[in-house]
Description:
Distance between the termini of chain A: 52 Å
Low-confidence stretches of chain B: none
Number of helices of chain A: 18
Radius of gyration of chain A: 25 Å
Structural class of chain B: alpha+beta
CATH superfamily of the largest domain in chain A: Fe-only Hydrogenase (Larger Subunit), Chain L, domain 3
CATH class of the largest domain in chain A: Alpha Beta
Structural class of chain A: alpha/beta
CATH architecture of the largest domain in chain B: 3-Layer(aba) Sandwich
Number of strands of chain A: 21
Strand content of chain A: 15-25%
Shape of chain A: globular
CATH topology of the largest domain in chain B: Glutaredoxin
Number of domains of chain B: 2
Number of helices of chain B: 7
Strand content of chain B: 5-15%
Number of domains of chain A: 4
Shape of chain B: elongated
Mean pLDDT of chain B: 91
Low-confidence stretches of chain A: none
Largest sheet of chain B: 4 strands, mixed
Order of helices and strands of chain B: HHHHEHHEEEH
Oligomer: heterotrimer
Strand order of the largest sheet of chain B: 2-1-3-4
Helix content of chain B: 40-55%
CATH architecture of the largest domain in chain A: 3-Layer(aba) Sandwich
Strand order of the largest sheet of chain A: 2-1-7-5-6
Helix content of chain A: 25-40%
CATH class of the largest domain in chain B: Alpha Beta
Amino acid sequence: MSVKITIDNTQHTVKKGLTVLEAAQSIGIEIPSLCYMKLHDINIENKPGGCRICVVEVKGRKNLVPSCCTEVEDGMDIKTHSMRVINARRTVMELILSNHPAECLTCAKAGDCELQSLADRLGIRELHYEGEKTHVRKGNSPAISRDPNKCILCRRCEMMCNDVQTVGCLGAVNRGFHSVVAPAFDKDLINSVCTFCGQCVAVCPTGALTEIDESAKVVRALNDPTKTVIVQTAPAVRAALGEEFGNAPGTLVTGKMVAALRRLGFHHVFDTDFAADLTIMEEGTEMLRRLKGYLAGDKDVKLPILTSCCPAWVNFFEHQFPDMRDIPSTARSPQQMFGAIAKTYFADMLKIDRKDLIVVSIMPCLAKKYERARPEFQQNGNPDVDIVLSTRELARLIKLCNIDLNMLPDEDFDQPLGESTGAGVIFGTTGGVIEAAVRTAYEVHTGKDLPKLEFEELRGMDGLREATIDFDGLPLRIGIAHGLGNARKLLEDIRSGKSHFHAIEIMSCPGGCIGGGGQPYHHGHVEILKKRQLALYSEDGSKKLRKSHENPYIQALYKNFLGAPMSNLAHLLLHTHYFDKKY
Amino acid sequence: MATLSENSRKFLVELCKKYRNDEHELINVLHEAQDELGYLPVEVQHVIAGELNIPDARVYGVVTFYSFFTMVPKGKFDISICMGTACYVKGSELILDEFKRRLKVKVGGTTEDGIFTLSTLRCVGACSLAPVVSIGSKVFGNVTPLQVKKIIDEYVEKAEELH
Amino acid sequence: MENTIIKFAMGTCGIASGTQDILNLFDKELSRLNYPAQLVKTGCMGHCYAEPTISITLPGREPVYFGNVNEERARDIIDHFLLKGDKTEGIIPPEGDFSKKQFKIALKNCGEIDPENIQEYIDREGYKALMKCVTMKPEKVISEMKASGLRGRGGGGYPTGLKWENTRKSKSDVKYVVCNADEGDPGAFMDRSVLEGDPHSVIEAMIICGYSIGANKGLVYIRAEYPLAISRLKTALHQAREQGFLGENILNSRFSFDIEIRYGAGAFVCGEETALIHSMEGMRGEPTFKPPYPSVKGYMGKPTCVNNVETLANIPAIIRNGSEWFASIGTATSKGTKVFALAGKIKRTGLIEVPMGTTLREIIFEIGGGIKGIKKFKAVQTGGPSGGCLSEKYLDTPIDYEHLLEAGSMMGSGGMIVLDEDDCMVSMAKFYLEFSIDESCGKCAPCRIGNKRLYEMLERITDGKANMSDLQKIKDLSVVIKDTSLCGLGQTSPNPVLSTLNQFHDEYVAHIDEHFCHAHQCKELIHYVIVADKCTGCTVCFRNCPVEAIYGDKGEVHTILDNQCIKCGICFSKCKFNAIIIN
């Protein structure tokens, strides 16, 4: 079905059901918008119709209409740049700016700010209106910095936090000029139900929500001659970092990233993928044990087992489903496994005190900043991981240190904590952890080699997926959820006894870590996520070793240090327990 | 977070149950909770959120949206200055200013001694008596700035008698 | 022998004026005298200027109305009118100006019947319209409504029959009828008066609406600030259920309908129907973009027909008397009558109902008796915060939706405030704008920030800090706010500013250019000064000054310290010698 419309004096036939904004887009007219956001592949849409930037003139309508909320009708005559429209749009923009701190030069979002680029696009060179500005308390946390004075009430964060993630931390408060988006009772995020998934940060068009920037700490550590500073990089970082340096989305920059880290001065450049392989050894073993016990009829053994590498997911169930905290795997996340091994095994190798070893993580994630600060991941006050930088912070640090990423040669990770298999790489996408686990668990369980390593049935972008893998006669039922709202559905099924899964992978962020809150901003273009996903699968495909248990450095680690998966030492260093955080 | 008395908690649990723990009844629940407890402090909102199975932020968002709801306890006497149009044109702003000045509180504030809360309301319909000040069920009509002190004194005395 | 019937106007206004005391006095005195009388509490009789009001109907005689019945007058009435049959002071002549231009449909029963006694309503043809409807096809009822020409009395003026028809056409298993009793205009109280004085007319109309559109559930959304209206409505609902007008199988029609009450919580914006619906659902009262209209997707996502109280109160009479009868009253485009809350600087304030087409002059100078005291008429404000101020040249404007709009104001819900020379038009605009700022939900930028900026510019004018270019800025901004705001609140909030700017331009200019406020209302622009020749040194001003801004010995000329003066005007009103003037 199609309708005939006139836009800016030319006639077009467009698909029925489109909004004016979409219809215009389909014929090459980009109506500026601000609060509107549509994430196509993951079915997320935010259109409160609040900013009024995308207004257009429709013949016969008394007032200007927001193009994001208005469906095209047959015969509609639309003007997107009449005098009236341009004047209104610019005035509304000036109004928004009149209630915005003019701190662009020092704002964390400078250069990446949608408000800033829109103001430029509308040619705002002067503000005709000025007056009182909203003044609200700022809030910090270990991961996310909140400056509500920069909030323009687009409500995207509220939508992500409530509708997509179902966390319910952020909401609109007060009314009128004093409206603001804030946690309940104006508490700090750390005292709220926030999971630090960072999806609010990922969609914030301004600097109202940003990460806590810790790059200065890294510079300080690198310049401290008494410290050995090592770094680990999460799988999803290599598939996105290049975007910050002008590369097309999906460009893998693994080798250049390693080279850059080395030039920044890190003494050893390691890979979280190594720890991902280690996670598979622990989590996979735990999964098989629970599966065996369950199949043997042991009533104390619960299934499904849930993955536990996503720290926001851990926060989520600790807050919202504390009664079910015995279901997730006890395996720590790869970041924390890495930290624990680095500060014991590797520090021993270097014969230095753990206090003199600084472990820096480069993560696509903001919750990792919170995770590293958890008390259970410290020894005598010394954390297993000292500093966490997001992909964005790393990019800024590289720029700060005058390094042109694109000019660098490809270099390899250091050993012994830099070797990884393809299984570790795909941890960065939804479905990857469970695929990696299946590769190892299958071979351990059946004692046979896998005929084919790619489990297409586990891949994809649907928010909830399920597949049954034949474990040599045992049908292993697997569920996959990304986005906490989807995770909630699976949890509720489990609670009500409706779940039939043996194992479930959960990632908090849409797309998994590739869509993490610390990644380069997608500005609504979520097709980027698919490209990042493909990049990871291609790196997996190009690896010689693609199963975690085949990683020789992992084998050496068990042989020389840990003994076997789930040994006492492995328990002490690589497993954790969860807390009831419902208040 | 201050703790709620067991009685108040029970009351809230029962109240939510009366409304079938239906989140759509939030405003009704808040009305009754405020009627009973006088105000809606954080811990009350938290219990209600839990009983209705909605985030605290949703309850807080509603409480802060509607001017009828208050998160701070009100004074013994709620002095309401009518700011309806009829009263406004008859000088209610001067009356309000005088109350603000004498009580040393802003609109919505409660005096330090906890006796008065100053508020404004919109049209009690006694437009012929404009400007109008109401305290509880008592309505003062044709109020002049000069009478403000007298009204305050009258109620300070009442508060002392109650004491 | 029949009893004498004495009715006491006991709406909120009457009670506030002390009618209960008068009723108690009559009760006590008449029983002491053994005088056979029936005392009835009714709703508002409309004579707000003369509260407490009572009416006395001697057996076989027409009712006689008495105004300003204080204790003394009450005793006088008992002693002379009741016992001796003499005329007494305080009689409101039935053919007086206040009544003769009025025509009551919506208010017909208000002040005449005991709202807590359903029989009195039934005795006055109550529920006859419903009985008639259930014998008609719903489509026929709707076509009657359409033929009557009744338009929404809440402000918008949308044809009621059309609204019903749209809701009827929406296919759904569940539909709702909503009565909007969230009266928010700070100068209007007709909805409250109707619910306090004649709740059954509203209930009957809601049932008729439900029957017509195919809804079985009605909801009254009423301000929690209206306790008396709520309690009378509850009583009425209870009685209607007892009599079988509500419930299952009403009047053997196989049609079932019941009504619930929902409470507002102090948000003017909830008068907007989408905001009202969100509020009824337990959410923040933020409007959403229309379409979808409530008639398609309303309360709980179901088709919903929202009607205002006064609109509903007209409906039983329309059904009983026929659409032709109703359509014969009023003007070409606006049929029937309109209720106004007449207040301000006028002799007879009150709740009045006039046929559409009555002129402002007739209302103000005939019904209202003209301006109080010796001052001159300056303007009349209609439509509350959404409306405008009309100057003398518009006095002959016939009142209907179109004419008021043309003149730069609007019908609104029916507040009508008369202003005289002592009213500053800039301050009036500021007053309404402040209201709109307080009541803005904050969702859309032009209303949230634009109105604030507009207010700040007006404030600069009343503070004497503006310049002439501000006037153009105010106009420009007003136009954009109207053109781009999300809902009716923002789309109309600049009206009081624009209308005063158009009609009282000179006053704005005087504030800006001469720092002069004709009405002596803008505190920053006025100074109280004591004229030496006239001051007798009586010390009255000195003794009454609340801030010790006046000094002077007894018998000597006093002086006002301008920097300490808070401009409360007490000295000015206290001086018996006109020695204090305003500069």
